[in-house]
């Protein structure tokens, strides 16, 4: 294995460390659409537990992928948004969407003549 191949594996491993877990990609996807409140995310991710969502958000905060902003309302409102580091992941999410639309689920409706980007 070349040094370049080795570095490729190391870099991908580091990226996966940040987006690990069952809900991480979906949380990133929601936040890529704009700032979200905790309960908004829970509604969109109807199978996620409070603990799982909390764990994902804390993990992303530690890795500086999201901002957590507290508003002094009654009750307190907390909003989550992507940092520049988190926004840098949006092209990856777009590519995952293209892959999912092209290859996900059943093969019904997939035209072999179409390219993934067109």
From TrEMBL:
Pfam (any one): HxlR
Residue ranges occupied by any HTH hxlR-type domain in the UniProt entry: 8-108
Protein name: Helix-turn-helix transcriptional regulator
Keywords linked to the UniProt accession: DNA-binding, Transcription, Transcription regulation
PANTHER family: TRANSCRIPTIONAL REGULATOR, MARR FAMILY, TRANSCRIPTIONAL REGULATORY PROTEIN
InterPro entries: HTH_HxlR (IPR002577), WH-like_DNA-bd_sf (IPR036388), WH_DNA-bd_sf (IPR036390)
Signal peptide range in chain numbering: none
Organism: Paenibacillus taichungensis
Tagged with keyword Magnesium: no
């Amino acid at each position: 294995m070349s040094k370049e191949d080795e570095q490729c594996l190391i870099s991908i491993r580091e990226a996966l460390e940040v987006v690990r877990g069952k809900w991480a990609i979906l949380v990133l996807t929601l936040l890529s659409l704009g700032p979200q409140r905790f309960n908004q995310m829970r509604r969109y991710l109807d199978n996620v537990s409070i603990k799982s969502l909390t764990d994902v958000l804390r993990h992303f905060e530690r890795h500086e992928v999201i901002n957590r902003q507290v508003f002094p309302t009654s009750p307190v409102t907390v909003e989550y948004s992507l940092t520049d580091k988190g926004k840098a992941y949006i092209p990856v999410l777009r590519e995952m969407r293209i892959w999912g639309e092209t290859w996900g689920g059943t093969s019904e409706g997939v035209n072999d003549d179409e390219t993934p980007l067109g």
